[in-house]
């Protein structure tokens, strides 16, 4: 990627502005080539002023350079720039974005290039992983001027030699400043891809340098990158909203009286038993393996469960062992030769907890995913608790749009097994008594088809929506906003 001599880069202010933001995939190779094409020119200018520079570079573990645009007015100022870090031990190149923030006296405006030399591998590694460098001092420049200085990496004793050269403008500044260094993942070949899952890329050109994964997760990332896969950023945080409506059936009714143990009893269930919930959630996820993501969510659940069933009075009296053949009977005997209909609207306000995994892979922008999750809903305000098992195989394609934007469209199916346990009491009409009950509510149809889309603003942000339905018995809408890092 870089020229024969280990030299670093200077860019125009126009190039700086473009490279410090997201760069479209089709423009990245040209940006790298432009950086490398200007490296010899810059190093020659520096070598004319500092004859010892080539020797110092030859013995260094690595070096970095940036080209900065600077603006300083009284009190506030700063600059932005891009550059690269060259590791002379393994030949890798890490392209970086640099931002400087200042508070202090003085005026300045112009463009400055800086070359930093790393004399030990650990210092180079720390800069390459990103850093914040506070410093206090004074500087001045006017036109084609040059300076030599040094700065310390926070928490370390070693100084990093820095060669500075100003290519335009002028000024004098005394200030406190913070310089941030971060990896430019558009230009750096790390194996980071545009897709949201591991994706098998077309065969790379022979002149493209080897990709070097620089993150702790996923495990075995470098192995699959070496086989031609690109990977998404490993961590994510999402805000999710889900709305689910289902027709339900009732099972396993148990009843009791005056606090006695509940016993199973025959009953008749009606067809209008439903469950309708809305659930905003916060989700955290991580790719622990290249093809396996794990996640956990927590959120508030709200909604209602409508249930209605009828029990036979004689069966109930027999179950509780009540003798209604006496001259004076207990009030509960009013149910003799009668039936009791129990209509209940259960409040499903509570907290929803979910854990799950996603198995996924892609090939040339086509992808296949299988999310699997288990949820528990604790409705503290009512005598209800729910369990949900969800498996959602889907297949889709990611379509590139303008710049770094893309949209992924997909279709699939969802297996949703929802079970709700509802407990409560029902007054016996005409008496001051009530019966206690517990009933299981289960969704009738487990499967529904779904379609969805995921809009990727860039590698960091995405917005997704999906909708599934099975006739009039089940429907589900899910949307999410995700930030990856």
Topology summary:
Elements: H1 13-19, H2 25-37, H3 39-49, H4 53-58, E1 62-72, E2 75-87, E3 93-118, H5 121-128, E4 131-142, E5 146-152, E6 159-183, E7 199-200, H6 221-226, E8 229-230, E9 235-257, E10 263-264, E11 267-269, E12 274-289, E13 292-312, H7 313-320, E14 339-347, E15 350-363, E16 366-379, E17 384-391, E18 394-400, E19 406-427, E20 434-443, E21 447-456, E22 461-470, E23 474-484
Parallel strand pairs: 7-15
Antiparallel strand pairs: 1-2, 1-3, 2-3, 3-6, 4-6, 5-6, 7-8, 9-10, 9-12, 9-20, 9-23, 11-13, 12-13, 13-14, 13-15, 15-16, 16-17, 16-18, 17-19, 18-19, 19-20, 19-21, 21-22, 22-23
Give the structure's gist in a few sentences.
The chain has helices at residues 13-19, 25-37, 39-49, 53-58, 121-128, 221-226, 313-320, and strands spanning 62-72, 75-87, 93-118, 131-142, 146-152, 159-183, 199-200, 229-230, 235-257, 263-264, 267-269, 274-289, 292-312, 339-347, 350-363, 366-379, 384-391, 394-400, 406-427, 434-443, 447-456, 461-470, 474-484. The chain has 485 residues and is mainly beta.
Head-to-tail CA distance between termini: 27 Å
Task: Tell me the Rg in angstroms.
Answer: 33 Å
Helix amount: 10-25%
What is the number of E strands?
23
Q: pLDDT under 50 segments (min length 5)?
A: 1-20, 104-108, 134-144, 148-157, 169-175
Find the structural class using helix and strand composition: mainly beta
Largest β sheet strand count, sense and barrel closure: 17 strands, mixed
**What is the overall shape?**
elongated
Order of helices and strands: HHHHEEEHEEEEHEEEEEEHEEEEEEEEEE
What's the number of helices? 7
Share of residues in strands? over 45%
